[in-house]
Amino acid sequence: MDSFKQMSDWRKNMDHFFGDHFWNEFENIIKPAIPQINIYQHEHELICVAGIPGLTDLNKVEIYVDHATLELKGVIDLGYAGGTVAKEEILQGVFERTVTLPYPVRRDKISATYQNGLAVIHLHRLISDETGRHKVNVRLTDGT
User: Fold this and answer.
1) Which intervals hold domain SHSP (predicted)?
2) Range of 88's domain?
3) How far apart, in Å, are the Cα atoms of 19 and each of 11, 13, 40?
4) Are 104 and 123 in contact (CB under 8 A)?
């Protein structure tokens, strides 16, 4: 029997026993999220550092920012093929990662650079010109 089929059957049995969402808690232990991301928070700025080794074509990575969400899509390809893998700790392949940011960021002030295997994304806090308080006008009615 195919070992992947056995693993799939085993997981289905565990899902049936523990519930459909049992594995969600272990997802990052079983399969770590790629790319790995560090976020450094300042009062009005975020610096997001994503480890994307082996990137030679910047068109193979896409970075999206929407309000308080950072999304990265792309491919990690180290360029080594053939042979049998004796140990693999640097994850490769297609990735799609969405991260919630600690606060909303401006759309007009975003920059990203790539050097030495790291994508560095600079984001700036969205500060609203409006106060949170909104005056409500009261109308006088004649009571009928």
Assistant:
1) 28-141
2) 33-124
3) 11, 10, 36
4) no
